[in-house]
Design goal:
heterodimer, A: alpha+beta, Arc Repressor Mutant, subunit A, 3 domains, 9-stranded antiparallel beta sheet, 8 helices, B: Rna Polymerase Sigma Factor, Chain: A, 2 domains, 10 helices
């Protein structure tokens, strides 16, 4: 097929409107034609956008039926060196993407954006470096904060500062994730700690790891679902034993 | 689709991480994608094949995802677009089994729905993936000449070839081909224009 003929068929190809023999002939051409490949990429996005318009419109938010177990056959995995590496350390490659996702997500979730955030690569890289070191448990964090049934509690500042935090739990996941943003820098030897009130009794749960950006994170493991709690606090504990509440949430 | 919105970027990276894990056999990632995008797949299926068969399509689509996850290439485009393409193909398979009348009826119902709904702000899913393009596409579709819109919908949602469209509409094949070309070119331009606009910032869902 010559290029001029191919160009006239690209729109129909993207819509799936070519006859099978026409589609095969076109595919033989585009395999070697950068121009046609680029054109197809530009046409495919609006076509898929139509599908999304229709899909989102009909989303009735009813509970999804349980997902059947995946088919018995293993996923099709190309036996390339890259894949083998991915298998031997299965989370490594995805984790980088996950860390990046998490970094962007957390920054957004914690309200660092007051308008449009600049997304230059350099800034993304810097953010990633700042936060990826502390997010060694990103898999757990993502799993807890990203569920459709995730329960989120917003902790508000009790000191008039702009700091705030969130505590996430998710039924069926034995971890609790706490995050805080815009925390004030700590004096030497003082710490930010999370407490939960369960059954009328307040318990220390753990220390938040706080970055110099004021972002704090804590992941707590439980033997089963985290217990339901009536209140949560982030307190600043000084080396002298002083305790000051910084953030708080309590059940209405 | 829209990459300039930070929330969209985050979601995209999240999806790409999960689909890469599914390719290595990670059932947790498989369920995560189901929770995140199952409602969209079901939404498309409900519109195309009706509620009764939508859940069957939903399961089939995710089975296909499990088997083909390694074939997804992030450079190709947004994961959601890829997943919805799988869903559309599965729906078309169902429609073809029912026959041409069902194919035509499905595309006409979708056309009526797209044209009949109010020009509201895009929902969170549309906003996250499409940004401004959602509204731009909707407007472009509404302003296409009816004949061009009809051939696009018969092809894309009805699964009809150009030859079949010519038979259904009674229009000469050459006319059908020209309308397919013109209609898609207009949508592409509208999409590109929407892409140039300032994207909407952080969606509710992530706040």
């Amino acid at each position: 097929m010559n290029h001029d003929v191919a160009v006239e068929q690209l729109e129909a190809y993207v819509l799936g409107a070519l006859e099978p023999d026409e589609a095969h002939a076109l595919e033989a051409h585009i395999a070697d034609c950068e121009i046609c490949l680029r054109s197809i990429a530009m046409l495919r996005d609006p076509a898929e956008g139509l599908a999304l318009l229709v899909a989102a419109d009909a989303d009735d938010a009813a509970a999804l039926p349980p997902l059947r177990p995946p088919p018995a056959a293993s996923p099709v995995v190309q036996p390339t060196a890259e894949r083998r590496h991915a298998r031997s350390t299965p989370l490594r490659a995805p984790s980088r993407a996950a860390v990046f996702a998490l970094v962007v997500l957390l920054v957004g979730a914690l309200g660092f954006w007051t308008g449009r955030v600049s997304h230059s690569e350099a800034q993304e890289r810097q953010l990633r470096q700042e936060l990826s070191g502390m997010v060694e448990r990103q898999e757990v964090v993502l799993e807890v904060v990203d569920g459709a049934n995730t329960v989120k509690r917003l902790l508000r500042s009790t000191t008039g500062s702009t700091a705030y935090g969130k505590v996430y739990t998710r039924p069926g996941i034995p971890h609790l994730v706490a995050m805080a943003g815009r925390l004030e820098a700590l004096a030497d030897d003082s710490t930010y700690e999370l407490t939960l009130t369960v059954g009328g009794e307040e318990r220390d749960v753990g220390l938040l790891r706080v970055e110099r950006t004021g972002f704090g994170l804590l992941v707590v493991d439980f033997p089963g679902d985290p217990p339901p709690f009536e209140a949560a606090r982030v307190v600043r504990r000084g080396a002298d034993g002083s305790v000051e509440t910084v953030l708080a949430w309590s059940a209405p | 689709m829209d990459d300039s919105d930070p929330v969209a970027s985050a979601r995209r990276a999240l999806d790409e991480g999960d689909v890469a894990r599914v390719a290595t056999g990670d059932v947790g990632a498989y369920h995560a994608l189901y929770e995140r995008h199952g409602p969209l797949v079901r939404g498309l299926a409900r519109r195309m094949v009706g509620a009764a068969e939508a859940d069957d399509v939903l399961q089939e689509v995710f089975s296909t995802l499990w088997l083909k996850a390694a074939q997804y290439q992030p450079a190709r485009g947004h994961f959601v677009g890829w997943l919805l393409t799988i869903a559309r193909n599965e729906c078309i398979r169902v429609l073809r089994r029912r026959g041409r009348e069902a194919q035509v009826a499905a595309s006409e119902a979708i056309g009526a729905m797209l044209l009949g709904r109010p020009d509201t702000a895009p929902g969170p899913e549309q906003r996250a993936v499409l940004g401004e393009q959602a509204a731009a596409l909707q407007r472009a579709l509404a302003t296409l000449p009816a004949e061009q819109r009809r051939v696009l919908l018969l092809a894309y949602f009805g699964g009809l070839s150009q030859t079949a469209i010519a038979e259904v509409t009674g229009w000469p094949l050459g006319t059908v081909k020209r309308r397919v070309q013109l209609g898609m070119q207009k949508l592409r331009r509208a999409y590109a224009d929407g892409h140039d606009r300032t994207p909407i910032v952080a969606g509710e869902r992530w706040a």
